[in-house]
Amino acid sequence: xxxxxxxxxxxxxxxxxxxxxxxxxxxxxxxxxxxxxxxxxxxxxxxxxxxxxxxxxxxxxxxxxxxxxxxxxxxxxxxxxxxxxxxxxxxxxxxxxxxxxxxxxxxxxxxxxxxxxxxxxxxxxxxxxxxxxxxxxxxxxxxxxxxxxxxxxxxxxxxxxxxxxxxxxxxxxxxxxxxxxxxxxxxxxxxxxxxxxxxxxxxxxxxxxxxxxxxxxxxxxxxxxxxxxxxxxxxxxxxxxxxxxxxxxxxxxxxxxxxxxxxxxxxxxxxxxxxxxxxxxxxxxxxxxxxxxxxxxxxxxxxxxxxxxxxxxxxxxxxxxxxxxxxxxxxxxxxxxxxxxxxxxxxxxxxxxxxxxxxxxxxxxxxxxxxxxxxxxxxx
Length: 380
Known about the structure:
Helix content is about 30%, strand content about 30%. With about 375 residues, the chain is an alpha+beta fold. The longest helix has 18 residues, at about 285-300. It starts with 6 loop residues before the first strand and ends with a helix. About 45% of the residues are buried.
């Protein structure tokens, strides 16, 4: 027996990012002191659910958690993908928490992935499933991912606290490796698309949200279409709520997004700290519409080829490219984006050259990819 050597990490931060990079780089990891001093120590429900998801899509991966949940040993296996998979994400985090790492891993699987996920489709913490459908999948196409078999279908919506949403995600595998890109031209915004939804409340809410957002955009450009999606019955999930997801498309093929949702949230008793999410319901629809429209304009103003929530994904895809130079432009680096750059350096040994562009207030990043190939296909 060969003794496995584990890379030691501490704390609960960037949990899914560490597991994702550990799997891609086949590096076993040992995470200690996971919320060791918190009132409720150890892993949270959504983190355990994410580990279960990794076990479902990969073969022979080893997960060991100690009794208090404060120590985790993870030895990655081979990402298999597969057709008829099913996973309940639970209700403590939105599906967006699971989708980003899942999509990246699925690209390097042995077989294309088709998985049905249940849980929360729209909340205020994680990107909504609409944003993944309208923005994230387009970013993948820039890196040469085939649009055939790349799809996200929303079967039913679910908001906190009880969820009840359901989606089907399909991701094709990369034939050999991703394509290195030079993507520094943001272009000008040519159209805005969006969707407002409501579950278990009157459809008037989404119309009011829509008109408030249009009121801001109509002064700026003519091509604005926001669709409504009023769900009833089983498709409306188990909790009342409403929200909106917007995306601005530019002349150079960039997609910049913003979204939010409003719902009654329960206090998280198990977390040991009461959250003030219950206040969320107090945002009236017109304020929500203006808030999301303003958030989108803020993202556009920052510049860059992606919005701040997609920075981490963009850097990760650049680092996984062949050993060729990728060059991208982003707005102000987000705290999560910076963490991703550090973890990429540690796991993949890829360093980015970061050059601020004072004239536009943006940042240009260059790197040589680690040349990750889809080895599981070769094994096949």
